[in-house]
Write a structure and sequence with these properties.
Chain lengths: 945, 91
């Protein structure tokens, strides 16, 4: 039932909304949460519990409310006591098996016998053949809503921030601290998890509301405070790196802010702790904060006849609020005078309450105010180990690092004025420390302009600690009840876990799953600790708490994934490829044409006419300096000293463990200028690798390495007619076989473009010229080649055709035909390795490999069945053991049969050896080791032509 | 995320860097025994406390440098460029 106007209400009665719950239409006002609107309409059951399918209702009326997790449209696990109603919203309950209204007393009794502590471990382990049956039952229990198969709608954002001070918690302490820090000169981020600033002042009386109005005015009058509402500091990491999750932004579903705060003020207030007794989960049993929020924020009358069980001022205030709202308070049971609650009873919802002295009251509402839990999560993440104060019955911060401060209820009690004063001091201290930290950071930047020396910070000993009030220690009463409402764990199960030997809180937690539900311990951890402490006859301090880890609040995968900032790279000819319908291939950061429709035809055209392939992603490096050859010699297993100007050489690079790292062709352009190429995927690593030699081992070498991959568009012109084609476009270079032989480099004008490099190399096994042209002319040169080659049968070819062509020729691909264990001798690169060099990367390993003969070898393989291509990575077996694997395989359009490369055990590497290959489905295929890696033109007549 | 104090660029997020590893001297490749080379390749102290390690500022200046870092607290106390930068800077 909706009450008449409340002074602090957050609903806008002039803005009525409609929404659907469980298939029925409900009214709400703007500002209502799903659960407040339902409560206003008299609904009390919001869900069925996780394990026992018990009815659950409003317990906390805030984001922690364990029984108010619902489905909204496609979105599961929405916190109904936090999410605001929108017009037309479709909400439905989760965990409703068999149904929300079904009286489950019978079902409860049936299941509670076997859902004891550790029941998953005990019940479902054996026998394994019954697992499918178990799974069907478990799926029923473990409902967490329904996810959509569609991609997540909405925009998820990321932001980086560098505030001076972040204040976690926008209650009175947080607001006061933020204003004081800002006035002391700090840029402040004030983060509040609810939809408005104010904390408990919002549901307080006239005094609290007037203080709130003043604080709000002060915050909005301060320019350097950024207020984030419906936001939460989800984690604190090294160096005060904070993950802040921000919601309620226009056009943004969720934003993850990664903030590097100079200081963090933790001001989360306190969380009200439930009391453990029989029936404590019945709809109608709620915390004093929940009753006060329902009445004062949403003008909802939470019941008609109430028992109030109070141990503190919050419970006393709730009793007053209830009376003011017209609820008949039939009993105020005061724990400070020995009062207790033993049992709440009712069918589906609360009907009666039995008090400690045996009196029983008929009522539909039981409000408990039995104590507070300090949400120390962020402090724990900062390295603090909070200590338990028996007198106050809660934990307090113990020792904090310099860049983390705490204020407000988490640090003590006292009057509102005392708390505001403490927070203001803390804010000023945080601003001072942020200034010092900022000065330290700027000092770390070698070339930064000098800044003012930090002003002496406010002394921390100037802050008067807040007083700490005594509080009755209330955790579990005389009966057993629920400790963890979201995981359905009772105090009885925790005691059973201890009896079975799980007496450490960390073990009992995992065995029973207490504190592992959606509230992640914030409601239940101290009760769980207290129950375990009682069962082990130890104190809460001795028992200790479970470890708090990030995230502090539930976080969606969308927020973590965020918007992607991965760069994508294209060659200057990409528009041409796209216009020709090229099938794209994602190769690292590059998008490349895989083929233009028919890779087989592309292969045939290269072998018979001429083809063009865009090889722009090829890693390219400009080496300059008198010691360039020394660097090459250090990186590659080959020799470089005698490479003549105008020549190119194929080189192989190994890591220090002798494993093949990269390969490519390097050309000498002038005395002290080389162009080095690397595999497309290895280019970034190679630069770091080369720099590490230059910067750490050989700083005396005078050579610079500059990445120039994107400075050139690279085009390989391959095929018997490639020379004819280029003769039509190249000026000032003699392309004849005599003047420009195989493995040479020339510089000249191509299609009118100056300074193009031409290399005669042959990855495809054909006569071919690789052109590196200034990238802005790439498309022009490519189109000119296509135009001039029309009568020669020119056609583009893609990566797939290139892979087939090189496999026909037996050229290996690093990372495809080698792996993380393949040293150079295994890859049939003996000819390149020059062990007589003074030094090169991996030299000792290769020397030792050369002395042995037990390494696998790369061989060519010819399958007997000419119709079946053994898939890559197929096992090669011999004498019942794995003896190798296929590294590359394709159907050869040129030879009309499958061709393979494989790594095999050394005793099987002899040409003519018959091997057995395991095909999918277990069939064996036979193959013969060939004489050469090359299946086609092993003598290399064509590429030298 | 910890801050790494790059000697050229100042304190930056660790995600801008590649962690190279504990600093270890390269044995003479022509006289090293297999045991020495294996130690160079694979064996690290991984202490709980102060360690000297190399980082590479890949998203910044492209320099290798060494820092002394306490693996427990992530405190960094000494930073120096690899010798190359110093040599080249002087020339």
């Amino acid at each position: 039932m909706r009450l008449s106007l409340r002074p602090g209400e957050v609903i806008d009665r002039s803005r009525p909304l409609r929404f659907t719950w469980n298939g029925h239409d409900y009214p709400a006002f703007l500002g209502d949460t799903i659960s407040s609107a339902l409560a206003a309409s008299g609904e009390r059951v919001m869900s069925r519990s996780f394990k026992y399918s018990r009815p659950r209702g409003v317990l906390t009326a805030d984001s922690l409310d364990p029984g108010c997790i619902v489905q909204v449209g496609d979105e599961p696990n929405v916190r109904a006591s936090h999410r605001r109603v929108e017009d037309g919203m479709i909400a439905s309950p989760q965990n409703v098996w068999p149904s929300l209204r079904f009286d489950v007393k019978v079902a409860n009794r049936a299941v509670s016998r076997f859902l004891s502590a550790g029941f998953y471990y005990k019940t479902f382990m054996k026998p394994q053949r019954l697992w499918p049956a178990y799974e069907a039952v478990l799926k029923r229990f473990a409902s967490g809503g329904v996810i959509s198969n569609r991609p997540a709608a909405g925009y998820f954002d990321k932001r980086y921030a560098h505030p001076d001070v972040v204040v976690a918690g926008g209650g009175p302490a947080g607001m006061s601290a933020a204003v004081a820090a800002a006035e002391a000169g700090a840029q402040v981020m004030l983060v509040e998890s609810e939809h408005e600033l104010g904390g408990h002042l919002r549901w307080g009386g006239a005094h609290e509301l007037s203080v709130l109005a003043e604080l709000k005015a002060a915050v909005s009058a301060t320019n350097s405070i950024e207020v984030l509402i419906d936001s939460v500091v989800a984690g604190r990491y090294d160096g005060n790196f904070l993950a802040i999750l921000q919601r309620s932004l226009p056009g943004v579903t969720e934003r993850l802010i990664k903030a590097r705060a100079k200081t963090l003020i933790v001001a989360p207030g306190l969380i009200e702790r439930p009391y453990v007794f029989a029936g404590n989960d019945l709809p109608g049993v709620m915390l004093s904060g929940a009753a006060r929020r329902l009445i004062n924020l949403w003008a909802v009358k939470p019941g008609t006849r109430a028992v109030v069980f109070t141990a503190n001022s919050s419970g006393d205030a709730a009793a007053q609020d209830l009376e003011g709202a017209g609820v008949e308070v039939c009993c105020v049971e005061d724990a400070r005078r020995g009062g207790d609650v033993v049992r709440a009873s009712g069918s589906a919802t609360l009907q009666s309450v039995e008090c400690g002295d045996g009196r029983t009251y008929q009522c539909d509402l039981l409000v408990t105010a039995t104590g507070w839990t300090a949400p120390t999560s962020l402090l724990n993440m900062a390295g603090d180990k909070p200590t338990y104060d028996e007198r106050a019955a809660r934990f307090f911060p113990c020792s904090l690092p310099e860049d983390v401060l705490a204020t407000g209820g988490i640090t003590g009690d006292g009057s509102l004025e005392q708390i505001l004063e403490h927070a203001a001091h803390t804010g000023r201290l945080a601003a001072g420390r942020a200034r010092v930290a900022g000065g330290r950071l700027r000092k770390g930047v070698p070339h930064a302009a000098p800044t003012d020396s930090p002003v002496a910070e406010e002394q921390s000993n100037a802050i008067t600690a807040l007083p700490v009030d005594a509080h009755v220690a209330l955790f579990r009463g005389r009966t057993h009840g629920f400790v963890d409402f979201s995981e359905d764990v009772s105090s009885k199960e925790l005691e059973a876990a201890v009896a079975e030997g799980y007496s450490s809180i960390e073990l009992a937690k995992r065995y029973t799953t207490a504190t592992m539900g959606s509230a992640q311990g914030k409601l239940e951890v101290v009760n769980a600790v207290a129950v375990v402490a009682a069962a082990t006859e130890s104190t809460i301090t001795e028992t200790g708490t479970t470890v708090w880890r990030p995230p502090y609040a539930p976080i969606t995968l969308g927020a973590l994934a965020g918007r992607t900032l991965e760069p994508v790279r294209y060659s200057p000819m990409q528009s041409w490829h796209e216009a020709r319908g090229a099938t794209p291939l994602v190769a690292g950061a590059w998008i490349r044409p895989d083929h233009y429709g028919n890779p087989t035809a592309e292969v045939r055209n290269v072998r018979s006419n001429v083809g063009l392939i865009d090889v722009t992603p090829l890693g390219k490096f400009d080496l300059r300096g008198p010691d360039a050859a020394k660097l090459l010699s250090q990186l590659y297993v080959n020799k470089w000293a005698k490479l003549a100007v105008g020549s190119v050489r194929y080189g192989v690079m190994c890591a220090e463990d002798g494993v093949v790292l990269d390969d490519g062709v390097t050309g000498r352009l002038s005395d002290d200028n080389y162009l080095m190429t690397a595999t497309s995927s290895g280019a970034d690593t190679l630069l770091e690798w080369a720099e590490s030699w230059l910067q750490t081992e050989h700083p005396e070498w005078r050579v610079h390495i500059t990445p120039v991959t994107s400075d050139f568009a690279s085009i390989n012109v391959a095929g018997p007619k490639s020379r004819t084609l280029l003769e039509r476009l190249v000026e000032n270079v003699d392309l004849s076989a005599e003047a420009f032989p195989y493995m040479r480099v020339r510089r000249g004008r191509v299609a009118g473009v100056e300074d193009c490099l031409m290399w005669r190399i042959g990855f495809t096994g054909e006569l071919s010229f690789e052109l590196h042209v200034p990238s802005s002319y790439g498309l022009h040169v490519w189109e000119s080649l296509m135009e001039q080659g029309a009568d020669l049968g020119i056609a583009p070819f893609g990566i797939e055709a290139q892979r087939i062509l090189r496999l026909e020729k037996g050229h290996l691909i690093v990372g495809q035909d080698t792996d993380g264990l393949t040293r150079a001798y295994s890859a049939e690169l003996d000819w390149a390795i020059k062990l007589d060099k003074e030094d090169f990367s991996g030299k000792p390993e290769l020397s030792w490999q050369a002395e042995r003969s037990d390494w696998p070898k790369l061989v060519g393989l010819r399958p007997e069945d000419v119709t079946v291509v053994p898939p890559e990575a197929s096992q090669i077996v011999h004498d019942g053991a794995i003896a190798g694997r296929i590294t590359s395989s394709r159907m050869s359009p040129t030879l009309g049969r499958p061709i393979c490369l494989g790594l095999v055990a050394p005793h099987l590497a002899e040409p003519g050896t018959e091997l057995s290959i395991v095909l999918p489905a277990g069939v064996r295929a036979r193959a013969v080791v060939t004489e050469h890696l090359a299946h086609f033109d092993p003598e290399g007549q064509r590429l030298r032509g | 995320m910890i801050l790494i104090p790059c000697p050229n660029c100042g304190p930056r997020n660790a995600s801008e860097f590649r962690y190279v590893g504990e600093s270890i001297a390269r044995p003479d490749p022509n006289s090293a025994t297999q045991e020495q080379w294996r130690a160079y390749l694979y064996e690290r102290v991984n202490p709980s406390g102060w360690t000297t390690e190399s980082w590479f500022h890949r998203a910044g200046c492209g320099r290798y440098f060494k820092i002394e870092r306490d693996t427990n607290s992530n405190e960094v106390r000494a930073v120096r460029l690899e010798p190359a930068a110093a040599t080249k800077g002087e020339s």
